[in-house]
Design a protein that fits this description.
The protein has helices at 2-17, 110-116, 126-143, 165-170, 213-224, 233-244, 251-259, 263-270, 340-346, 353-358, 425-429; strands at 23-31, 41-44, 52-53, 59-64, 71-75, 82-85, 99-103, 149-160, 176-194, 197-211, 277-283, 286-297, 302-313, 319-336, 361-377, 380-396, 401-416, 435-438. The protein has 440 residues and is an alpha+beta fold. It has an eleven-stranded mixed beta sheet, with helices on both faces. Strands 3-2-5-6 form a four-stranded antiparallel beta sheet, with no helix packed on it.
Length: 440
């Protein structure tokens, strides 16, 4: 019945106006237990810029010109991307009810990949390891092309306040600050690479930042700083309008996410020292090759550990997935006194003014997990999706702590491999307006 109503309304729109009329598409995104998923991305496959994000209760609504059989993409980090036909999300009246989209946990989860890659009990002989690494490298050279490629991606970067599941559960309603979404064109130019890395050109096309109303006001005050309180009312309103539409596209964050995990380059640089490699999880036709690298500087005050996991087909040696886990420890013996503006930018957990005045940065502890999934086209391997979680704790004097969590996902919506040309300087440097979208 709902499909009939959608088609009838669609035909009436064409007949009466001679062109498409924007229809409203609504629904709710939940997990397999029925819990709402906030800040999930919802967009039409043909035009991601028309999309939106779910609110704290998982609801969404947007207007678009769509045919009944067009696909709507729903995605969120840590869950499998799913598609729904436009006709399922169209309601002639509220009485029709809202369509529920259930997202399943992603089987290739960041932590699962890392945990699975434990070293095997048997010590690998260097010759066997060298032969295995060589076989994988030969396959990488064969499958990863040296020709230009152009991607269109939807890139979501979300800021959370909580740093662990217990804290998130305790402050579930306040854990997410907001999300910035960018739709971009990315051109990869292997022939212009330096030191074996691909040259990446990034062109932002659309940029939205999603907040609920309360957090929007809080974010505006933090971004503006104390100076805004000294402005007159008209000046303040003008300043806030300018800040809301600031030419801050966030390109640095989104471009960095795409550039992270240069798998082929890193593999080539590290394959010679077999002592840093282990093999594990040889089951279900997959082998996990793990490379571990430790860096310690300044008498141990700076420590970093990298683990790179190459999940390869046990028979063909083709890389199916790739993940990285990095841990950083920084210790500052006497601490650093941060100024008020720096602390305002970092303080996303409402630290009291008294604690801010006393805060002295002494330690930084953090981890970054990156998961990369690939697709095959024309006999070659190209990027399909990246997920990243960055979990940082900034520790100060008297056990004061500022936790920061950034979760990001980048999904390819289209891939072009023929006739790809470099972007022009104006395309790369064109500054974008950020559209502020409040969700309720």
């Amino acid at each position: 019945m709902k499909n009939y109503k959608f088609i009838l309304a669609f035909v009436l729109c064409i007949g009466s106006l001679g062109s498409l009329m924007a229809a409203t598409f609504s629904g709710r995104v939940v997990d397999e237990k029925g819990a709402p998923i906030a800040y999930a991305t919802v967009y039409p496959e043909i035009a991601p810029e028309w999309g939106t994000a779910t609110n704290n209760d998982g609801f969404f609504s947007f207007e678009a010109n769509l045919m009944p059989d067009m696909k709507i993409i729903i995605s969120f980090i840590g869950y499998e991307k799913t598609t729904v036909l436009a006709q399922n999300l169209y309601s002639v009246s509220p009485e029709d009810g809202l369509y529920s989209v259930i997202l399943k946990e992603q089987p290739i989860a960041l932590q699962e990949t890392v945990i699975a890659a434990k070293p095997s009990k048997q010590k690998n002989k260097r010759k066997q390891m060298a032969a295995l690494l060589h076989a994988v490298y030969v396959k990488l050279e064969e499958e990863f092309p040296d020709n230009n490629a152009q991607y269109q991606v939807v890139s979501d970067v979300r800021m959370d306040c909580a740093t662990d599941r217990a804290l998130e559960a305790k402050n579930a309603e306040n854990s997410t600050w907001g999300m910035e979404q960018m739709i971009a064109n990315i051109v990869v130019l292997p022939e212009q690479a330096k030191e074996g890395r691909d040259s990446v050109q990034f062109q932002g096309r659309y940029c939205k930042r999603f907040f609920d109303a309360e957090k929007r006001a809080q974010a505006d005050s933090i971004l503006a700083g104390d100076a805004i309180e000294r402005l007159e009312k008209k000046q303040k309103e003008k300043f806030m309008r300018k800040a809301a539409n600031a030419v801050d596209s966030g390109v640095v964050v989104h471009r960095a996410l795409f550039a992270m995990g240069n798998m082929r380059y890193d593999f080539e640089q590290t394959m010679t020292d077999t002592r840093q490699w282990t093999v594990s999880n040889e089951s279900e036709g997959e082998t996990v090759l793990t490379h571990t690298q430790k860096v310690s500087k300044y008498m141990g005050l700076f420590q970093m550990t990298f683990q790179r996991h190459y999940i390869v087909d046990s028979e063909t040696f083709a890389v199916r997935r790739f993940s990285e886990h990095a841990e950083v420890k920084v210790t500052i013996p006497f601490g650093i006194k941060l100024n008020a503006e720096q602390l305002q930018m970092l303080n996303l957990v409402n630290m009291s003014e008294q604690n801010i005045e006393k805060f002295r940065l002494k330690k930084l502890r953090g981890s970054v997990d990156l998961n990369t999934i690939y697709q095959r086209q024309d006999g070659h391997v190209y990027l399909l999706e990246k997920n990243m979680i960055s979990n940082i704790r900034i520790l100060g004097s008297k056990k004061a702590e500022i936790p920061l969590v950034v979760k990001a996902t980048q999904r390819v919506t289209s891939l072009q491999t023929q006739g790809v040309t470099p972007l022009s300087p104006s395309q790369i440097t064109r500054r974008l307006k950020r559209e502020i979208v409040e969700i309720y």
